[in-house]
C-alpha cells in the first residue's frame, strides 16, 4: 500500500493563508478594475465609525485566515484518519493472509509428518517382518546353537513388536508342541543292544536330545521371565494366550509367574520327568487348563501357588507317577477343577494348602493308587466337593487338617478305601465336613475302621434277610 504524502502543518497553513490572501487581493483588484479604478478620498481625520469599520475588516480577514487554517488542519486530520483506517484494513488483510499461509504450512507439515509416519511404519513393519522371517528360519535349523539364537531373536522381536507379539509367542509355543522325546540314556552310551534289554541310545543321538532339551528349556525360561517381570527392562507378556497343548515337559521354570488373563492351555500336556516349577505362581484371571494332562514322572511343584480368580482346570488329568505338589498353595477364589482326574500312582501333595474361598472340584476323581495328602490343610471357607469321587485304592490323608469353615463334601463319594483323618473331639466330624451315611461305622473318633464298616453293613444285610425267613422254618 502506498504511503500517505502530506506537507508539514506549518507549510500547509502558510501556503493556504497565502493562497487565501492572494485570492482576496485578486478579488479586490478585480473589483477595482471593474469599477474603473475609482479614487480614494483621503481625510485627515479618522472618525469612530471609520475606525470601527476598519477593525471589522481586520477581524474578518483574521477570522478568514483562521478558518482557512482550521480547514487545513481538519482536512489533514481527515486524511490521516482515512489513511490510518486504510492501513488497519491492509494490516488485517496481511494478518489474514499470514494466518492462511500458516494454516497451509501447518497442513503441509502435517501431511509431510503423516507421510513420514506411514513411511516409517512401513519400514518398521518391513523390518519386523524381515526379523520374523530370519528368526523363524533360525528356529527351523538343524543346529541347536542356531535354534537357540532364533529363540532369543523371537523373544526380542516380541518385546519390540506390539502388534506381532502374540504371533511371536505362538511361534515359541508351537516349538514346544513339536514332537519330542526326553533324553534318557547317559551321554556316551554305545549303540549296542544287550539281550533282553531295551536299546541303548547312541552318543550322537543322545547329545542331540540333550541339546534339544536345552533349547526347549530356554523357551520355557524366557516365557517365565516375561510373566514374572523381575527384570524391569522386560516387556510384560501377561494377558496373552499361551498354547502348550500336547507339549512334553521334562523340566522348566514358571515360578513366581502371573497368569492374569488370556487363555493358557496345558491340555494333554505330558509331564514325564525332570522338575517343572510353578512355585508361587499366581492364577488370578483368564483361563488356565491342564485338562487331560499326564503327570507320569519327575516333580511338578505348585507349592505356594495362588488360585484367586478365573478358571483353572485339571479335569481328566492323570496322575500316574512322579510327584505333584500343591503344598501351601492358596485356593481363595475362582474355580479350580480336578473333576474326573485320575490319581493312580506317584504322590500328590496338598499338604498345608489353604482353602479359603472359591470352588475346588474333585467330582468324579479317582483315587486308585499312589499317595495323596491333604495333611495340615486348612479349610476355612469356600467349597471343596468330592462328589462321586472314587476312593478304591491308594492312600488319601487328611491328618492334621483343620475344618473351621466352608464346606468339604465327601457325602456322595464312592468310598472303598476310606481316607484317613485325625481323631476328633467327641468322635463327631467337624461342622462343614459332610461324610457318607456309611460313616456311622467310624471308630476311634475319626479313624475309619474299614472292617467295622464292612461288619456293620453285613449285619444290616443279614438282619434284613432274617426278617424275610418264614416262622415255620
Structure notes:
The protein has 473 residues and is of the alpha/beta class. The strands form three sheets. Strands 2, 3, 5, 7, 9, 10, 12, 14, 16, 17 and 20 form an eleven-stranded parallel sheet that branches. Strands 1, 4, 6, 8, 11, 13, 15, 18, 19 and 21 form a ten-stranded parallel sheet that branches. It has a two-stranded antiparallel ribbon with strand order 22-23. Helix 3 packs parallel to helix 5. The C terminus is likely disordered.
Keywords:
473 residues, alpha/beta, ten-stranded parallel β-sheet, 23 strands, 41% helix, disordered C terminus
Structural category: alpha/beta
Number of helices: 6
Report the helical percentage: 40-55%
Give the averaged pLDDT, no decimals.
83
| Elements, N to C (H/E) | HHHHHEEEEEEEEEEEEEEEEEEEEEEEH
Which shape, going by the Cα principal axes?
elongated
Compute the separation of the termini in Å. Answer: 141 Å
**Share of residues in strands:** 15-25%
Largest sheet: 11 strands, parallel
Unreliable runs: 185-196, 449-454, 456-473
CA-atom Rg in angstroms: 53 Å
- Overall strand count: 23
Blueprint (SSEs and pairs):
Blueprint: H1 9-34, H2 48-139, H3 144-160, H4 165-177, H5 203-228, E1 242-243, E2 248-249, E3 252-253, E4 258-265, E5 270-277, E6 282-289, E7 294-301, E8 306-313, E9 318-319, E10 323-325, E11 330-337, E12 342-349, E13 354-361, E14 366-373, E15 378-385, E16 390-391, E17 395-397, E18 402-403, E19 407-409, E20 414-415, E21 433-434, E22 442-443, E23 447-448, H6 450-467
Parallel strand pairs: 1-4, 2-5, 3-5, 4-6, 5-7, 6-8, 7-9, 7-10, 8-11, 9-12, 10-12, 11-13, 12-14, 13-15, 14-16, 14-17, 15-18, 15-19, 16-20, 19-21
Antiparallel strand pairs: 22-23
Helix pairs in contact: 1-2, 2-3, 3-4, 3-5, 4-5
Amino acid at each position: 500500500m502506498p504511503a500517505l504524502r502530506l506537507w508539514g502543518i506549518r507549510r500547509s497553513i502558510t501556503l493556504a493563508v497565502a493562497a487565501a490572501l492572494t485570492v482576496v487581493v485578486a478579488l479586490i483588484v478585480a473589483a477595482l478594475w471593474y469599477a474603473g479604478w475609482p479614487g480614494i478620498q483621503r481625510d485627515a481625520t479618522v472618525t469612530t465609525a471609520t475606525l470601527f469599520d476598519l477593525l471589522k475588516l481586520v477581524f474578518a480577514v483574521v477570522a478568514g485566515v483562521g478558518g482557512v487554517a482550521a480547514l487545513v488542519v481538519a482536512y489533514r486530520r481527515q486524511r490521516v484518519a482515512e489513511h490510518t483506517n486504510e492501513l488497519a484494513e491492509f494490516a488485517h488483510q496481511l494478518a489474514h493472509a499470514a494466518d492462511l499461509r500458516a494454516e497451509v504450512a501447518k497442513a503441509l507439515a502435517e501431511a509431510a509428518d503423516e507421510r513420514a509416519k506411514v513411511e516409517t511404519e512401513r519400514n518398521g513393519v518391513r523390518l519386523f517382518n524381515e526379523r520374523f522371517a530370519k528368526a523363524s528360519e533360525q528356529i527351523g535349523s538343524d543346529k541347536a546353537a542356531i535354534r537357540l539364537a532364533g529363540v532369543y531373536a523371537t523373544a526380542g522381536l516380541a518385546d519390540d513388536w506390539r502388534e506381532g507379539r502374540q504371533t511371536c509367542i505362538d511361534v515359541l509355543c508351537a516349538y514346544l508342541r513339536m514332537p519330542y522325546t526326553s533324553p534318557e540314556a547317559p551321554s556316551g552310551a554305545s549303540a549296542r543292544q544287550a539281550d533282553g534289554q531295551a536299546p541303548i541310545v547312541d552318543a550322537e543321538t543322545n547329545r542331540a536330545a540333550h541339546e534339544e532339551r536345552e533349547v526347549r528349556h530356554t523357551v520355557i525360561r524366557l516365557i517365565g521371565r516375561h510373566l514374572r517381570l523381575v527384570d524391569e527392562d522386560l516387556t510384560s507378556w501377561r494377558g496373552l494366550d499361551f498354547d502348550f497343548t500336547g507339549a512334553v515337559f521334562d523340566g522348566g521354570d514358571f515360578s513366581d509367574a502371573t497368569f492374569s488373563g488370556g487363555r493358557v492351555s496345558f491340555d494333554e500336556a505330558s509331564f514325564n520327568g525332570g522338575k517343572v516349577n510353578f512355585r508361587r505362581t499366581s492364577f488370578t484371571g483368564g483361563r488356565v487348563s491342564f485338562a487331560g494332562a499326564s503327570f507320569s514322572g519327575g516333580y511338578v511343584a505348585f507349592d505356594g501357588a495362588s488360585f484367586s480368580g478365573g478358571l483353572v482346570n485339571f479335569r481328566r488329568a492323570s496322575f500316574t507317577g512322579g510327584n505333584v505338589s500343591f503344598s501351601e498353595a492358596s485356593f481363595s477364589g475362582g474355580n479350580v477343577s480336578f473333576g474326573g482326574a485320575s490319581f493312580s500312582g506317584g504322590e500328590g501333595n496338598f499338604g498345608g494348602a489353604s482353602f479359603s474361598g472359591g470352588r475346588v472340584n474333585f467330582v468324579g476323581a479317582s483315587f486308585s493308587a499312589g499317595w495323596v495328602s491333604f495333611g495340615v490343610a486348612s479349610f476355612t471357607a469356600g467349597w471343596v466337593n468330592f462328589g462321586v469321587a472314587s476312593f478304591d485304592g491308594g492312600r488319601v490323608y487328611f491328618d492334621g487338617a483343620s475344618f473351621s469353615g466352608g464346606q468339604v463334601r465327601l457325602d456322595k463319594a464312592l468310598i472303598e478305601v476310606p481316607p484317613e483323618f485325625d481323631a476328633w473331639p467327641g468322635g463327631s466330624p467337624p461342622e462343614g465336613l459332610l461324610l457318607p451315611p456309611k460313616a456311622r461305622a467310624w471308630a476311634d473318633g475319626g479313624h475309619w475302621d474299614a472292617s467295622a464298616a464292612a461288619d456293620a453293613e453285613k449285619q444290616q444285610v443279614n438282619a434284613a434277610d432274617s426278617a424275610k425267613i418264614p416262622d415255620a422254618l
